[in-house]
Amino acid sequence: MKYIIFNISEIDKVNFEEVRETSKETVRISIDGTKTFVKWNEDKTPSFINTLTTAEGPYTYEEIQTILGMDLWNDPTLLPLP
Fold first, then answer.
1. Is the separation of the CB atoms in 4 and 56 below 8 Å?
2. Which tens digit of pLDDT belongs to each residue from 29-81?
């Protein structure tokens, strides 16, 4: 899988037939509500990716896991206590 992060304001540029998410209602959104991401099989990069002006990536699975562990994507106050 490959992953790309972009501003939620560009969500209407996504062709959901080319990614694993099914609609804009099913994407994960950052805690501050500004960013989202999509994923796709590595063999074919979605055609709309080049139209995203705020794109970050693409990232591998390992890289996206590190990014999603950051506070922008997780509210530390909601994490379980050790």
1. yes
2. 999 899 999 999 988 899 999 999 999 999 999 999 999 988 888 766 655 55
57 touches 49 (CB < 8 A): no
Contact (Cβ atoms closer than 8 angstroms) between residue 4 and residue 46? no
| Secondary structure element (H or E) that encloses residue 63, with its range | helix 61-68
The residues pairing with 6 across neighbouring beta strands, listed in sequence order, are: 36
DSSP 16-60: TTSSS--SGGGS-B-TTSSEEEEEE-TTS--GGGGG-TT-EEEE-
φ, ψ dihedrals at 57, nearest 5°: 120, -165
